[in-house]
UniProtKB/TrEMBL annotation:
Lineage of the organism: Bacteria, Bacillati, Bacillota, Bacilli, Bacillales
One Pfam match: Peripla_BP_2
Entry's family note: Belongs to the bacterial solute-binding protein 8 family.
Name of the molecule in the record: ABC transporter substrate-binding protein
Domain (Fe/B12 periplasmic-binding) ranges: 68-319
Length: 321
């Protein structure tokens, strides 16, 4: 009996030792994973002071993590909120409408984004101001106040990604910026995959009207890139933004016409459809005139991929199902 008890005790002791060894062996691995995660988090933390170059080539030094930010263009506001910085945005413009309650969440709403009241800016005591393509005179006035001002005006999808990452760097939200850009790229990839079977001869000719007087984006514009990325062919071969000739539109015979001004002209599509002399245009004959949400196709921010998707759906509804 004693021998049996001694044998049982030995077995239990051995099992205890083995279990302990197993637990101890797991700890270094767990510790390594924790260390890696901690190191990654630390590498994504911004160190101040930080000097960054904006889209005008200006070097701007941010001395500390900004806690009071003014955004004077809707795309930057959308970026800041996507990065979880709504508690640090103190002012936007009257044109900011996304998130939908954005104007209620800030201390002040500027009635004029391109030429804001300088005295009001001073009262708000901002630590960072984000601009788009603002006039140099106004920007210089703000810089004279020793307030950090960054101008970002991305003109391509890649530039949008870079801008979001730069805003993340400046505001110490690099991890959030990385995640936002990753989701955008995933969606872009999904759109590209749906259009992958599209043959060159199947690509449709597109005309984009951003106003009733046929103001349109030509080569080298952001909208032109979106149309191409969505598998379309922009009929406008001129560079930049121009007012296009009606005779050229008729002669180039677009298969799809996109408008972006339905938010202020509810009859945008109807008026295009009944334009005199346009009845033989393919887009008119086949009723392929589509009004797009101007905000998501024109704002170079986190929702621009939604804009790309809306264009792709307008051009190739069957492929984008």
């Amino acid at each position: 009996m004693k021998k049996s008890l001694l044998l049982l005790s030995a077995i239990l002791l051995l099992l205890g030792v083995l279990t302990g060894c197993g637990q101890q062996a797991a700890k270094p691995q767990e510790q390594t994973i924790q260390n890696q995660a901690q190191k990654q988090e630390e590498t994504l933390k911004t160190t101040y002071p930080l000097t960054i170059i904006d889209d005008t080539g200006t070097k701007v030094t941010i001395t500390k993590e900004p806690t009071r930010i003014i955004s004077l263009i809707p795309s930057h506001t959308e970026t800041l909120f996507a990065l979880g910085l709504e508690g640090k945005v103190v002012a936007v413009t009257k044109y900011d409408n996304y998130p939908h309650d954005v104007q209620k969440k800030v201390e002040y709403v500027f009635q004029e984004g391109l030429n804001p009241n300088i005295e009001q800016i001073v009262k708000l005591n901002p630590e960072l101001i984000l601009l788009g393509s603002h006039n140099k005179e106004m920007t210089d006035k703000i810089r004279e106040l020793k307030i950090p001002v960054l101008q970002f005006n991305p003109q391509s999808l890649d530039a949008v990604y870079q801008t979001i990452e730069k805003v993340g760097l400046v505001t110490n939200t690099q991890q959030q910026a990385k995640e936002v850009v990753s989701k955008m790229k995933e969606k872009q990839k999904s759109i590209n995959e749906k259009l992958a079977t599209l043959k060159p001869e199947e690509k449709v000719r597109v005309f984009v009207a951003v106003s009733p007087d046929l103001y349109t984006p030509g080569k080298g514009t952001f909208m032109d890139e979106l149309v191409m990325e969505a598998g379309g062919i922009n009929i406008v071969e001129d560079q930049g933004w121009i007012k296009y000739n009606e005779e050229k539109i008729i002669s180039k015979n677009p298969q799809v016409i996109l408008t972006t001004y339905g938010y202020y002209d509810k009859n945008a599509v109807a008026n295009i459809m009944k334009k005199e002399g346009w009845q033989n245009i393919d887009a008119i004959k086949n009723k392929r005139v589509v009004d797009l949400d101007s905000d998501i196709v024109n704002r170079p921010g986190p929702r621009i991929i939604d804009g790309l998707e809306s264009i792709a759906k307008a051009l190739y509804p069957d492929l984008m199902k």
